[in-house]
Each structure stands twice: as C-alpha cells, then as structure tokens.
Model the fold of this input.
Amino acid sequence: QAVTSDTWLLHLKFRVPRRSFTKGELTKVLQLDELEELENLPQYASDSRVKVKSAGAWLEMEIRPHTFQEIDTQKFWKWLEDASFAFLGKSRGPAPGEQVAAAGASASSDPKKSMPWKVLKQRWHSLRKGFPAGADIVWPAETLSVFIQAIHQSAGGGRWRWDEQTIARYILPGQKEPWLILHTKRPEGLIAVLNGPAGYDPGDLKDSLPMPVQITSAEDGKEQVQISFTKLQQPRDRSVRKLLSTHRDYVSKSQATV
Done:
C-alpha cells in the first residue's frame, strides 16, 4: 500500500508473514538517512523511517522514502522480491487462534497464479533471474527499460503483457495479436521480434542500425523482423526508433486495406 498524503515522504506499507524479516534487516537494506539529515525538508519529529509492527500472523512493515533514488537499489529490489515470495508462500489457511483476514489467508486454487512472473510481471522481466543456469548474460539489465521507452516513443498507445515466464508481448491499439514479442531471458541478448505482413523493407535503415536486422518468413504470408540488443546504447539509437515507427506504420496501413 502506498500512502501519498504526506507532502515530503511516501509511506510504503508491506505485509509479510511473522518471523520472515526483522526491522533490523530492512533498516540495513535501506540505509536511509535520518530525517534531520535531509536537505530542503521542513522540520520533522525525530521519527524512524522504518516501522514494523505485528498484526496477528502477519508483520506490517512501513518505509518512508523521500526520493526514488533512496530505494532504487539492488538490495531493496532483492528484498522486495523476497518479501513477495514470503507473502505468496503463506498459502495455508489460518492456524487455530490466528485472526487473519480471509483475503489474506485464502490460498490460491491455481498454483500457476503464484509464479513470480504472474505476480511481479514487468519487474520479473528486469531481474537477473530465470536465465539458463550458468549462462553468461552479455546484455545490461537496464537495456530493457531503455527499449521500453523507445517503444513508447515510436509506437505508443499499445498495451503490454508481462505475465509469461520468458517473453513479453506488446499489442498495438485495435489489434488482438502482438505486434512485438520481446525475449527477456535469453543470455545472448534482449531480442525483439516484430510481426507483420510480408513485404516490409527497412531500406537504408539496415545500414544505419547499431545491430543486424533479420527478416524471416512466417506462416500465413507474414514476416518477422528481429533485432537483438547487447549494449545499453543500442535501443537509444535514432535508427532503432525509426525502424519501430516505420514498421508500425506498415502494419497499420496493411490492416487498413484488408
């Protein structure tokens, strides 16, 4: 739960099973400065920015960041992942005498819904988890967020599906099938596959792109355009955005004539 009524601090509240974490562990993960040490803040009471209290079978934890940078750390994201797994792992019913809200204690009848990619969604695809064991991952994790920005700038208005283990899908407005399939758990690169009718010609873009482009035939008179990112600066390249926008326009015009 995020409480935004405080002008200067965001109150983030989490619920995890008791004995799964301690206040000391979370304080060590965050390493937040004391309120009086923060600049440009009005006078706050000397209050802890990490709070923990028991609530029946649960532990309610609250943190109060002032900026996103304070919590945008590898340690915190790892803790958040562990906390979500701990919450999902409490799938049994309440033990005798435990006063647990029904919504919090009820177990999912379908274990597949508790898979991390179903719960974390986009966050799962940005983690360095889910890759083949022992694989050497050659592309930076931040490449994903940079490429998402390129998609939104070049072909905005669509919707993402993040609930699969190794791929994400981007669907253009008015379409049912994904225009783009993004392979996020391949160690050799972040691989984007654009789907559309046969006949798309990138022209001179093939020479200016910072990576090779592969065009292969698919079923039912369709083609797939594939590009693979291995460096962070590649999805920032102007020619990548140009390729995305021209392919989107080609797909849209082809469908308009059907």
User: Anything to note?
Assistant: The CA atoms of residues 158 and 174 lie 9 Å apart. The two ends are 47 Å apart (CA to CA).
